[in-house]
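Researcher: For the annotation table, I need structure tokens for Putrescine aminotransferase. Please keep the output clean. Sequence:
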Amino acid sequence: MTKVTTAQLQQFDRAHHLHPFTDFKQYQKQGGRIVSRAEHIYIYDHDGQQILDGMSGLWCCNLGYSQQRIVEAVNSQLQQLPYYNNFFNCSNQPAAEMAKALVDISPDGFNHVFFTNSGSEANDTNIRLVHRYYDLLEQPQKKLIISRHNGYHGSTIAAASLGGMSFMHEQFRGIDYVHHIDQPHWYAEGGDSDRNEFGLQVARQLEKKIDELGEENVAAFIAEPIQGAGGVIVPPETYWPEIQRICDERDILLISDEVICGFGRTGAWFGCETFNFKPDLITFAKAVTNGYQPLGGVMVGDKVASVLLGGDGEFGHGLTYSGHPASCAAGIATLAIMKEQRIIERTASDIAPYLQQQLRQFEDHPCVGEVRGSGMVAALELVGDKHSRAKIADNSAAATFCRDQAIANGLMVRAVGDAMVTAPPMVCDRGEIDLLVDRLGRALDATAKEFAVK
Ligand code: PMP
């Protein structure tokens, strides 16, 4: 690579690169951090600053950045067969093997997969699959999808319509057959109610919404086991069993969007296993390749698959890179590492409980109203007053400040609303969790001082 200075790169970037989820106007002025390399759980910027990556990239590099086996798998696949499509009755070895590998680690009753490149496309695919399913069952009017406010399902028009981020909805016109119910966010929306009672109440909104829309018109309910981008919202214990009861009693499909929760994040292969519910379809992406190659898809449960497989005619949906050989090669290597090194078992029995326990010490911090999390994902809700749950400052200014302090202290975390979010790689050891917690603590202290929270 030619030698370029950080300032030059920032200049090219500011002048020509439109970034995702970024304030374009502001970015032109301030520019950004150029990340140049990474090792184990650390990223390094172009000036050499080392930052512990408490976000696993964008919730995807669950095994960190030094997995040579994935690099070699991709490299050798690119030499053998860099590309061929999976249309017109063709397949390739990595796609076929990856399909089998995914079935092997999926819950019972999941024996088929449709590949995409991303989580957004996988959720678009979900809509196509459930519409096709009910068409084949001769119930073509069943087209409506129910999802949740403050859920995140991606950025294509359909996936963003499924999502419930109000600031996104303000910027585009969503598809008209998606209907939202409330999220199970007890701390923000539960008021004085009992946590478990609140969980039941918000779950029962699904039942009400089905009745309101007419069960004969509703095709599916989609939700993340834990809302990730919405701020790591861990539902009350009563929530998922009640959702399961409703979905069992009603003729609608349940889609678990596991783009963040999948592949060990919650301490099991999938979040639906941690929360003990049985979806009909599972969306996956991100950590399936440890973030090394774009790959996503839908695991299709037997109930849906049996109808799809019995239908006459072609399913009119697919992507040029569905089942891309290099992406599937990365996925095969990723799953093999996870299995052979017993990553999930170690996460569940040691490193995740340790992370959660260490973070709980911040419950006593003056700035922190709630510490929530499960497995290797957690959030600290910042408040100015623990009793009233009042915010420290408007416009999430305290969380933004806290995040910037963390980065300055060598820790990458994310600010979501007023919450500080972390989802570190599962290959951390206890010492590295201690380092993360120490740096986060410094950022919290600085925030308390800056905003005079006592
Ligand atoms: N679903 C969930 C739950 C996600 O968190 C994301 C991405 N953060 C997506 C879907 C979209 O995935 P992608 O960005 O790969 O399109």
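Researcher: And a one-line annotation?
Model: Residues 69-340 form a domain with the Aspartate Aminotransferase; domain 2 fold (CATH 3.40.640.10).
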